[in-house]
Amino acid sequence: MWISQQQVRDKVEGCWIGKNIGGTLGGPFEGVQGILDVGFYTQELNGEPMPNDDLDLQLAWLVAVERFGNQVNSNILGEYWLSHIHPNWSEYGFCKNNMRAGLMPPLSGSVNNSHANSNGAWIRSEIWACLAPGHPDVAAAYATEDASVDHSQEGVYSAAFCAALQSAAFVESDKFRLIHIGLSYIPDDCGVAQGVRLVMQCYSDGVPWKQARKRLFMALPHHFGARMEGELDPDIPVGEVGYDAPANIGIFILGWLYGEDDFGQSMCLAVNCGADTDCTAATLGAVWGIIHGAAGIPAQWKEPIGRSIKTICLNGDMYTRFPSTVDELTDRILNIMPKFLDVSHLDLIHGDAYRIRMKDASELHNKPPIRNYLHPQAGFHEYYYINRPYAIKFETPIFYCWFDYQQEPALQSDEPFEVLVSFHNRIDVPHMLNLKWVLPEGWSLPSHARETMLPLPHHFGAGRAQVRFTIQPNRMERAKEDAYLDIRVEGRHTRLVIPATFYAF
User: Fold this and answer.
1) In what order do the strands lie in the sheet with 495-504?
2) Which residues, in sequence order, are bridge partners of residue 85?
3) How far is residue 273's CA from residue 130's CA, in Å, rounded to a whole number?
């Protein structure tokens, strides 16, 4: 299916207008835990939207993509966190603290992070959907890389779900099919999937929206927001600190379904559920804008906020210019798309603009990989290790490597620590890998493991190998220690040195 650049432009523009509307509508009520009665904007706007981190963090990712194209990954995005994003609240502060201590993504999102399951990642999924329209597998992959910098588990699943759904919305408009597409990219038993299915079941059974909201919060208690306002229900428990993504994704779905295809009603329902109101409404507005385009959003909602973008989280410099309007943001996304998407998805020789090949509706779901000898391949979950919050991915021209701590890298003297190192061959040639450890003074490995050889088969470009190492720290001289795994390919110049950071507790 080929779609013109102009058709995509209308949907991308609609995405960001909807995002601005939702963030502005819900912004004044962020953190309210009770039921509200909002019917329209409640603040003086003077033709401008509210600043919103849901949108402005994505401007930093756009700048990263403009520089690195489709090579952008969690490590690069982590550097942009440290360079351009100044807030230190909740997961934002935890991830930056971890990276400054030497912990690379995804450890930056999973270690000592009480908000790893919170909302900071799924609220910024639109950039990946707009850069990969009609390719939910691509959008979900980059959203996973993004989310792993400051989240793990539900925080990552929620981002993959939203990015896949939003990317598919460039092709598909049916709400239920889109929701099922999003669900196909996350584990069936995760909290996000449970919340989404619960709301869908309530809607199907004719349960009123307030009762559906209550069932959602009873099943998946959240802790978002310190203020207690509105219609409080003592029967609804307070959840664990930071466990916010499942319930709030459920609110986004609730507003979408119960809004019955009315833009204003849908947006207000999402806000009136309380909790993370700017995020739920902004994500819903973005999805609506992708499906219906900018022209499909009612003028009464667009006109009060204009077309500017107001930022709150970004630090710029003389070399970095962030978009200041929806029009500029749309233009820059359309300009960089040919550098981001695979060339097979673009028709660059098509008049004054390009066309984009999008997947057919039957191709949008995440499907298990076909396991056969000639074309073995990893599935989405396996390739991106979506269930392994302590596995760092490295790439070389010859292989992918995952260095998996398997748990937080916290050591106690004299207690062994096992790491798992896995490889995936990228080319149709077998290799012999030489793995050599450089350890802190006093640390040890079994004599055969300090330096070892590991065969890496090819199997038509999909050969795999793995090895486990049990490190004996013996003593910790400092609160933080660094070990190094030096990986060489025999007969090749490719070399990978993995820094392994451990800390004492």
Assistant:
1) 410-411, 495-504, 480-489, 431-438, 451-456
2) 314
3) 28
Range of the domain at 414: 390-504
Q: What pLDDT digit, counting tens, does each position of 250-309 carry?
A: 999 999 999 999 999 999 999 999 999 999 999 999 999 999 999 999 999 999 999 999
Q: What is the pTM for the complete model shown? A: 0.94
Residue 253 parent element (H or E) = helix 245-258
List Cβ<8 Å contacts ≥24 apart for 421-424. Answer: 421/466, 421/467, 421/468, 421/469, 421/485, 422/464, 422/465, 422/466, 423/399, 423/454, 423/456, 423/464, 423/465, 423/466, 424/378, 424/399, 424/400, 424/462, 424/463, 424/464
Size (the chain), residues: 505
Distance CA 296, CA 8 (A): 14
Residues 408 and 321 in one domain: no
Half-sphere CA count of 472, side-chain side, radius 13 A:
9
Q: Read off the CATH number of the domain in which 467 is found.
A: 2.60.40.10
Kind of pairing, strands 353-357 and 2-4?
A: antiparallel
CA distances from 502 to 240, 330, 458, 496 (A): 27, 43, 33, 19
Closest by alpha carbon to 483, among 494, 475, 471?
471
**Run of H or E residues at 402:** strand 399-404
- Identity of residue 437: W
Q: Whole-angstrom Cα distance, residue 66 to residue 336?
A: 6
Whether residues 404 and 317 share a domain: the answer is: no
Bond before 106 cis per omega within 30 degrees = yes
Q: Tell me how far apart the alpha carbons of residues 195 and 218 are, in angstroms, rounded to a whole number.
A: 10
Cα(141)–Cα(366) distance, integer angstroms: 11
